[in-house]
Specification:
Blueprint: H1 7-14, H2 25-30, E1 46-50, H3 55-61, E2 67-72, H4 76-85, E3 90-92, H5 95-102, E4 108-111, H6 118-127, E5 131-134, H7 142-155, E6 159-161, H8 169-179, E7 186-193, H9 217-221, H10 247-256, H11 258-263, E8 271-276, E9 288-294, E10 308-313, E11 336-342, E12 346-350, E13 357-358, H12 378-387, H13 400-418, E14 426-429, E15 434-435, E16 443-444, E17 447-450, E18 453-455, E19 458-460, E20 463-465, E21 469-470, H14 471-479
Parallel strand pairs: 1-2, 1-4, 2-3, 4-5, 5-6, 7-10
Antiparallel strand pairs: 7-11, 8-9, 8-14, 9-10, 11-12, 12-13, 14-15, 16-21, 17-20, 18-19
């Protein structure tokens, strides 16, 4: 570099420059020390990866510019190709053992395990001062999302949730159009996904299978209640089981609802209500519908932000087609869509915010005001943030300061579905993380076994239910899980 770089221009450059940018020694000498931004880390990050057999493998591909020093997966058969791809990395089947041996040496940790272990692994890494990348959904519960948000702020580490659409241009375009007033005030949004594409709506299997020699079942269970092994739970099907996953909502809402959350400046909903096909005690339902209500937010320079209703559908349920949408146009784009109903126009985008367009056919001419991620490389954006000094760091596209509150919205929908038997719209106090209108004596029970039969042409309805439990206590457990098997989260930071 031959020219002086001011602090402001450095920050701007840092959003677009390649990872590893450093300042020339001669430049350092020309400026006062206090005015010189710290140079980015000029070496490869040492990364530990936990959960590598599924989505984790793809995430690691985006991090191959760095030094992968440790790999962990509970299922070594599933993870075998990934172990082979990184032969120099040490191999583990329990993250606790890997952390004990390598965490001090590492700079960063990638987490792509089953949903219920995201928080416990990420929290330990953050408290050790390590940067973290966590696949979506960020966490299994509202409390866990709040915790990771505050821990990341306390320890000043670079973070990223694995909703890769946040690094795409589509989400930014949606925001810029809405913020410029192109569709007017938005009071309703409808969203959907075509998933699940794994088994859901299942009763707990009765068959107990021998644990494969290549699987660390205890490590897979982690902080969840212990249960006998059955091949239906893992590796990928964990998404359909309440103890381990969050269903289609947790899987895809992180992609589909993100442009909604960001473009409308949402935070905590004030009301939520869920409905679904048969709700079982063990497994997520085959199809769900959730309604969120968000209060009015501060107006933007060119558009107001009134109260807005956001509706989610999955499992084959979809919104009715917007009036005026041409016949033959498929709303489903890359697994789902979001439909923003404004007072001037309707904006539609696909999953990940892809391919936004206006129902009127008009193409807005709006300047780009949001940072673009070079080549839309989600993992590399996080690596860039890891290498920047905290004092000048440009947050990644889905830094926990945004991803944490957003994920609270996602798993709040899961809560609404699991509380649907209350048959009421639930009032939510976001700051306190609690429902405020559940009656003290209300109870919850869910179906264990659906004993529906037909004999001699006559239907018999014979469901087996769990014992009734206090609904307030049940809701608190869903908001903040009781960890099992000796696992424990760090305390919630006070600031």
């Amino acid at each position: 570099m031959s020219k002086e770089i001011s602090r402001r221009s450095f920050l701007k450059t840092g959003t677009t420059a390649a990872v590893g940018l450093s300042m020339a020694p001669g430049l350092m000498a020309k400026k006062k020390k206090k005015d010189v931004p710290p140079a980015p880390l000029d070496r490869k990050l040492k990364i530990l990866a936990v959960g590598i057999g599924g989505r984790g493998a793809g995430v690691l591909h985006g991090m191959e510019t760095e030094d992968i020093i440790g790999l962990c997966d509970v299922d070594w058969q599933y993870a075998a190709p990934v172990f082979e791809r990184y032969p120099n990395a040490k191999r583990y089947n329990d993250y606790k053992v890997m952390f004990a041996e390598l965490l001090d040496e590492a700079d960063a940790v990638m987490v792509a395990t089953a949903d219920h272990t995201h928080a416990i692994i990420a929290a330990e890494a953050i408290c050790a001062g390590k940067h973290v990348y966590v696949e979506k959904p960020l966490t299994h519960s509202v409390y866990e999302s709040r915790l990771l948000t505050k821990l990341a702020k306390k320890y000043g580490v670079a973070t990223q949730m694995g909703n890769q659409g946040s690094s795409g241009d589509g989400v930014k375009t949606v925001c810029e159009w809405i913020w410029n007033g192109e569709i007017g005030e938005v009071t309703k949004v409808e969203t959907f996904t075509d998933r699940p594409i794994w088994p859901q709506g299942l009763e707990r299997p009765k068959e107990v299978m021998p644990v494969p020699s290549t699987l660390n079942w205890d490590a897979f269970i982690g902080p969840a209640p212990m249960r006998p092994y059955n091949s239906i739970y893992t590796p990928w099907n964990f998404r359909g089981w309440w103890d381990f996953g969050t269903g289609a909502l947790g899987d895809m809402a992180c992609h589909i609802l993100h442009p909604v959350f960001k473009a409308l400046n949402l935070k905590y909903p004030t009301k939520v209500q869920g409905s679904s096909t048969l709700l079982l005690s063990e497994s997520c339902p085959n199809a769900e519908m959730v309604k969120y209500v968000f209060p009015a937010r501060d107006n933007m320079p060119k558009v107001a932000m009134p109260e807005v209703e956001v509706i989610w559908y999955d499992g084959g349920l979809t919104p009715f087609r917007p009036e005026g949408l041409p016949a033959g146009v498929n709303l489903n784009n890359a697994g789902g869509a979001a439909i923003f109903y404004g007072t001037k126009d309707v904006l539609i985008c696909g999953s990940y915010g892809r391919d936004p367009y206006l129902l009127s056919g008009r193409v807005p001419d709006v300047p780009q005001t949001l940072r673009r991620v070079p080549d839309q490389q989600h993992q590399q954006d996080w690596i860039r943030a890891c290498k920047e000094h905290p004092s000048v760091r440009v947050p990644s596209a889905s830094d926990f300061s945004e991803a944490g509150p957003f994920n609270e919205m996602v798993v709040m929908g899961v809560l609404a579905v699991r509380l649907q038997s209350l048959n009421m719209e639930l009032d939510w106090d976001g700051e306190k993380m609690e429902f405020t209108n559940i009656p003290e004596d209300a109870t919850i029970r869910t179906v264990i076994h659906d004993g529906f039969t037909i004999k001699d042409g006559h239907p018999t309805f014979n469901k087996t239910y769990t014992d009734p439990v206090n609904a307030r206590e049940y809701a608190r457990e869903m908001v903040r899980h009781t960890y099992q098997n000796g696992y424990k989260l760090p305390d919630m930071p006070t600031e």
